[in-house]
Specification:
Elements: E1 2-9, H1 14-30, E2 35-42, E3 54-62, H2 65-73, H3 75-88, E4 92-98
Antiparallel strand pairs: 1-3, 1-4, 2-3
Length: 102
């Protein structure tokens, strides 16, 4: 399984960010072909109880490398990518990994 991990730093306007993410961005992301699961976590603190470096974590799961590659080429992904750059381009970091069992 391939996972796209998306980390968002703290936005200036959290209410506007949350509104856009829930009502515009997440629905766009859910339309990406081959997406098996979208899991979103709002980070509440670091392990010591202080403010964490990141505000939100999104994890997008795909069956395998080919499914992931095709998804990234899709018009639906292009729409989601354009959207994320419009509202969070300066606070987003993305990475891709393979899910492994320890």
């Amino acid at each position: 399984m391939v996972k796209l991990v998306v980390l968002y730093k703290h936005p200036v306007d959290k209410a506007a960010f949350d509104e856009h993410y829930a009502n515009v961005h997440a629905p766009l992301a859910r339309q990406i072909p081959g997406l098996e699961k979208l899991e979103v976590t709002r980070i509440r603190s670091d392990v010591m109880g202080g403010e964490a470096q990141y505000y939100l974590l999104a994890e997008m799961y795909f069956k395998d490398e080919e499914t992931y590659r095709q998804a990234m080429k899709s018009p639906e992904n292009k729409a989601a990518a354009k959207d994320v750059m419009s509202f969070a381009g300066d606070i987003v970091y993305m990475m891709v990994g393979d899910v492994v069992e320890p």
